[in-house]
Structures are given as structure tokens and as C-alpha cells.
Design brief:
Blueprint: E1 7-12, H1 15-26, E2 37-41, E3 47-52, E4 62-66, H2 69-81, E5 86-87, E6 106-110, E7 116-120
Parallel strand pairs: 1-3, 4-7
Antiparallel strand pairs: 2-3, 5-6, 6-7
């Protein structure tokens, strides 16, 4: 039996703006709304479905995207073009840096609701 992640729901104060933010930075398209969701489909078929939460403050979550070296360059370029603050670590201690964990590259930045977004070119633990 094959088990794959199909979608996850991402809480947002403005689902359309948050979906566009992620799609723009990753170089993807925000899909048409369906029901209460504003989706962004990742090329491996997983969808992040943005949903406007009325349950109080948004609790930030972490979303990491494994990308190729060329995709990293393009996405990182868009992060810098937009003047977004970025970090080499999830604790936001190394601002303005990228990491080179496991022989790859990685960087973190926040979305408008404080969700921690990450791109990395090698899965953690894959070795150098």
C-alpha cells in the first residue's frame, strides 16, 4: 500500500493573500478557491489549503520544501527581491545567512501570519 500526503490545511488571517505569497515566492500558481480554501499545489501533488481561521491568533507552523539547486537559486532570489528577512536556522538566530547542512543549502523565512517556511536542497540527515 502506498501512503502519500495529499493536503494540509494552513490557518491564515487572509487566505488569498497567504496563498499568493507562498505561490509567488515559490514560483507557483495559487489555485482557484474551492469551498473555504485557497489552495497552492506543490509539484509533487501535495496541496496547502489556506483557510481563514476565526479561532483566535494563528499558531505558526513549519512547512519545508525540498527543491533542486536551480530552484533554490530562483526562490532565494525572489526572497531577496522582496526584501524578506531570512535566516539560516529555524530559531531565527542567523539572520541574512543560508545554511549548508548535509552538503546542501537551506534558508528559512516567515509568511504573513508567522508560519516558518523553509527551502532546502538536501534532506536533513542525508549526509554530506
Amino acid at each position: 500500500m502506498s501512503i502519500e500526503l495529499n493536503h494540509t490545511i494552513v490557518a491564515a488571517t487572509d487566505k488569498k493573500a497567504s496563498a499568493r505569497f507562498l505561490a509567488d515566492v515559490l514560483g507557483l500558481e495559487a489555485g482557484p478557491e474551492y469551498g473555504p480554501f485557497a489552495p497552492v499545489e506543490i509539484p509533487n501533488g501535495v496541496t496547502l489549503d489556506y483557510f481563514e481561521s476565526d479561532d483566535g491568533p494563528i499558531t505558526p507552523q513549519h512547512y519545508a520544501f525540498l527543491v533542486s539547486e536551480d530552484e533554490f537559486d530562483a526562490i532565494f532570489g525572489r526572497i531577496k527581491e522582496r526584501g524578506l528577512t531570512y535566516w539560516a536556522d529555524p530559531y531565527h538566530r542567523r539572520a541574512g545567512e543560508i545554511n549548508t547542512n548535509d552538503g546542501g543549502r537551506g534558508v528559512y523565512w516567515d509568511d504573513p501570519d508567522g508560519h516558518k517556511l523553509e527551502i532546502l536542497t538536501r534532506p536533513y540527515g542525508s549526509g554530506a
